[in-house]
Amino acid sequence: MHFINFGGLMAVLVATQFLFVHSCGPVPMVKRQGPAPTKYTTPQTKVAIRNVRVFDGRRLNRPATVVIENGLIGHSKHERDADQVIDAYGGVLLPGLIDSHVHTGSVANAETMRNYGISSAMDMGCTLAPSDCDALNVGVGYPQIKFSYDGAVSPFGASAKLGLFKPNSFVTNASTAAAYIARQVTNNASYIKIITESPGLDQATFNAFVADAHGNNKKVMSHAPRHDPVSESLTAQVDFIHHSPTDKPVNESQVQQYLKQKVIAVPTLIQMLTIAGTGFGNSTYPPARDSVTSLYRAGVPILAGSDATGLHIPPNLLVPMGISLHQELELLVEAGLTTVDALRAVTSLPALHFGLPDRGVIAPGYRADLVLIRGNPILNISTTQEIERIWIGGVEFNPFNRTISTVPCDGGDNEED
Ligand SMILES: *[C@@H]1O[C@H](CO)[C@@H](O)[C@H](O)[C@H]1NC(C)=O
Ligand SMILES: *[C@@H]1O[C@H](CO)[C@@H](O)[C@H](O)[C@H]1NC(C)=O
Ligand SMILES: *[C@@H]1O[C@H](CO)[C@@H](O)[C@H](O)[C@H]1NC(C)=O
Ligand SMILES: *[C@@H]1O[C@H](CO)[C@@H](O)[C@H](O)[C@H]1NC(C)=O
Ligand SMILES: *[C@@H]1O[C@H](CO)[C@@H](O)[C@H](O)[C@H]1NC(C)=O
Ligand SMILES: *[C@@H]1O[C@H](CO)[C@@H](O)[C@H](O)[C@H]1NC(C)=O
Questions:
Q1: Can you give the residue ranges of the Amidohydrolase-related domain (predicted)?
Q2: Cα–Cα distance between 190 and 281 in angstroms, integer?
Q3: Across-strand partners of 53?
Q4: Which site from 54, 96, 324, 366 is most exposed, i.e. has the minimal number of CB atoms within 10 Å?
């Protein structure tokens, strides 16, 4: 089944009484013709940002100078021959934000992410042709996007019945699993995504699927928004579990299995809260939040992902691009993360777990992906939304037209984590 316009999507979703919402699977996408994206080049000028408090990916430090040169962070001693000096008046500089679960869909959406300081995005389902997905990676000055391309799914589950998947995404047994994974390897997928639902794949096929992906050196991302799919994903030995159960929280034996198998959690609480708000499928928010609380307390790595699509699905389903990642940080803190761990969840931790060694940290030699904010995010996580300046690969943006405040964010000594 093909969707040629947005209206088609609406009709299907409404007709299926939000089954899609229930499973929060991928969204159909349509390639659109629009104006060609703006081309940027790496600036050759050297910029020094002075009097800035750096969250280096681990902790917030005392005021210092950060130098940007050739799209990278330079040594602060290079400040003396800077072409441009910016006084940040004690503002806070964050590494460019990394969204660990997004459905980019369009260059316009990539631009919206950029305007909220997101310089890297882990796309968890792009139903365009792989070359059209790749084209969403515009280049210098745009977010860098990694792709699973379209996810694997059982043809017998609720998601596939909506017609949102192409038949070559269907996995039924070990041989169709191998064919699917071989295709994603050829497409250069960064990781393998699978929809876990009941009814869905039988456990033996799921296990074979994950073993095949690992044999091809690919990590497996499981979409598991309910309690039972979490167990099936753990049994199959997936690497990352995305979403958080809206029916029944994870229990202690599941938590221990996450730890033992070193599974990473990407709870996408903003999506779970949004789905619970639709009132569909008996989904409620507290189990999703409580699952994060248990996983975090036990020491399971938690990454910030929004599951943003930017699509408004009536009556009230919308996870907007960009801002939703900041809302996710607020929800993670509400679920018990310290503000420092919420900041790590959107910078250094995803860089570590997705294998992106050139970002997530502010230090010489790393990509100059930077977000200058007003306010102290250690005291108040919501201040990540007070964006004054953004640099992506050294290209500067000022999407909110804010002038750098001359008012220091606070007088206190809050450098420690
Ligand atoms: C696997 O499933 C495919 C498609 O459903 C089918 O054609 C094939 O015969 C099955 N292979 C085995 C070994 O069962
Ligand atoms: C996958 O990557 C290889 C090596 O970089 C490249 O030669 C090939 O063209 C890529 N395939 C696709 C489909 O982009
Ligand atoms: C946790 O949940 C799983 C899956 O529902 C179940 O098999 C297991 O017995 C539960 N463990 C505890 C300690 O409740
Ligand atoms: C919601 O819960 C009710 C009562 O337990 C049940 O009858 C109904 O089937 C559930 N609906 C869905 C969509 O799970
Ligand atoms: C936290 O920051 C937000 C965004 O600047 C602001 O609206 C809110 O009032 C602050 N909360 C507190 C308790 O200061
Ligand atoms: C910022 O300024 C530009 C140029 O004047 C304008 O096009 C844009 O709409 C402004 N953006 C906001 C968020 O005010």
A1: 92-394
A2: 32
A3: 63, 92
A4: 366
The residue nearest atom 1 of ligand 1, judged by CA position, is: 173
Q: Is the whole-model pTM more than 0.90? A: yes
- 176 CB less than 6 Å from ligand 1? yes
Cα–Cα distances in angstroms (integers) from residue 10 to residues 4, 102, 138, 150, 313, in the given order: 12, 20, 29, 20, 7
Kindly list the protein residues whose Cβ atom lies closer than 6 A to any atom of ligand 4: 281-282
Ligand 6 neighbourhood includes 403 CB (under 6 angstroms): no
pLDDT at residue 351 is higher than 50: yes
- Pick the atom of ligand 2 nearest to 188's CA: 1
Ligand 4 center–CA 282 separation, angstroms = 6
What fold, for 47-95+361-397? Urease, subunit C; domain 1 (2.30.40)
The residue-averaged pLDDT of 151-180 equals 92
Task: Please list, in sequence order, all residues whose beta carbon lies within 8 angstroms of the beta carbon of residue 389, skipping any fewer than 6 positions away.
Answer: 86, 370, 371, 372, 396, 397, 398, 402, 404
Report residue 245's pLDDT band, with 50, 70 and 90 as the boundaries. very high
Given this chain, do its domains 6-30+97-353 and 47-95+361-397 carry the same CATH topology?
Answer: no
**pLDDT tens string 224-241:** 999 999 999 999 999 999
- Pocket probe for ligand 5: among 330, 333, 382, the residue whose CB has the most ligand atoms within 8 Å is 382
Which ligand has the nearest atom to the CA of 279?
Answer: 4
Identify the helix (H) or strand (E) that includes residue 211: helix 203-215
Ordered by start, the domain boundaries in the chain are: 6-30+97-353, 47-95+361-397
pLDDT score at 407? 72
Residue with tokens 């992506």: 392
Distance CA 140, CA 136 (A): 12
167 DSSP assignment: G
Torsion from C-alpha of 163, 167, 169, 174, nearest 10 degrees: 130
CB 98 within 8 A of CB 146: no
Does residue 11 register a pLDDT over 60?
Answer: no
